Amino acid sequence: MRHARFIHQGRIREGIFEGDVLLDEQGSVVPIDGVTWLPPLVPRTVYGLALNYADHAVELNLEKPKEPVLFIKPNSSLIGHLSPIVYPAGVSYMHYEAELAVIIGRAGRRIRPDRAMDHVLGYTIANDVTVRDFVGNLYRPPIRAKGFDTFGPIGPWWVDAADVADPHRLAIRTYVNGAVRQQGNTKDLIFRMDDIISFISSFATLYPGDVILTGTPAGISPVTPGDVIEIEIEGIGRLKNPVVAEGASS
Question: What angle do CA 140, 61, 75 make, to 5 degrees?
């Protein structure tokens, strides 16, 4: 099942999809073209993973990490489907990062890898927007580079874990203005989701509502105001956001 949050008639609502029909909490049909999409959940903490695809490490001329490289993505960066990503004034290289996001549904500490997936509630799509200008050894973890307001598009909805047969075999594509810029597959993750969950929970309790961004494959490239980014993950959906210049009316 697909779960969404949105604004309809001036109110924040939660709903589900039955087929292609959006229903609100009372089961009433909501016209999709009459909603403003919100992030499909309000995360407690968003954990990001850097360099979790070998081909992405290669394109950045970096070594494959020996353990997960983590950072925190601020909740203030999160926006929904179709909301604009703001290109900050004065930066030279901003890019997308298509990522499968894992939603935690059950709390746990020191979770064993063989039990880790039992703690997953579902999955959604995330775009870990990054300003490359601010990424380097002096800036690790890259919170500034990835933490601007609007730098965390997520959605359009989240999908129940039970509806995703194998989250480690999902195709990922990024389109910019309709052209494919990035392609990958979660089968190529360096650290699988069960290992990531176990690693984070080895030092921090994971709680319901925590979100883990699992990394991006090779294929990053710059975007500029006027571009439209779409990220598609097999079995999940398609997340679309325009890029606007800072100070421009959206």
Answer: 35
CATH at 83? 3.90.850.10
In a domain, 22, yes or no: yes
* Cβ proximity of 147 and 77 under 8 Å: yes
CATH of the domain at 30: 2.30.30.370
The H or E element that residue 121 is part of is strand 120-127
The CB-based long-range contact list for 223-226 (8 Å cut-off, 24+ gap) reads 223/87, 223/94, 223/95, 223/96, 223/176, 224/87, 224/94, 225/87
Tell me whether residue 114 is exposed, middle or buried, using C-beta atoms within 10 angstroms of its C-beta: 0 to 12, 13 to 18, 19 or more: exposed
- Sign for the pseudo-dihedral over CA of 176, 215, 204, 104: positive
- Check residue 63 and give its pLDDT: 83
Instruction: Give residue 58's identity as a one-letter amino acid code.
Output: V
pLDDT digits (tens, 9 = 90+) for 99-127: 999 999 999 999 999 999 999 999 999 99
- Same domain assignment for residues 176 and 97: yes
**Residue 120 placed within a domain:** yes
pLDDT in tens, 140-156: 678 889 999 999 999 99
Does the residue 250 lie in any domain? no
Q: What's the predicted TM-score (pTM) here?
A: 0.95
Tell the residue number behind the tokens 């924040």, with chain if given.
Answer: 12
The token pair at 195 is 């290992």
Greatest Cα-to-Cα distance within the chain, rounded to the nearest angstrom:
52
241, 74 contact by CB (below 8 A) = no
Unique residue bearing structure tokens 């959605």: 155
169's tokens:
């075999």
* Residue 21 structural domain: 1-37
* Close Cβ partners of 34 (under 8 Å, ≥ 6 residues apart): 8, 9
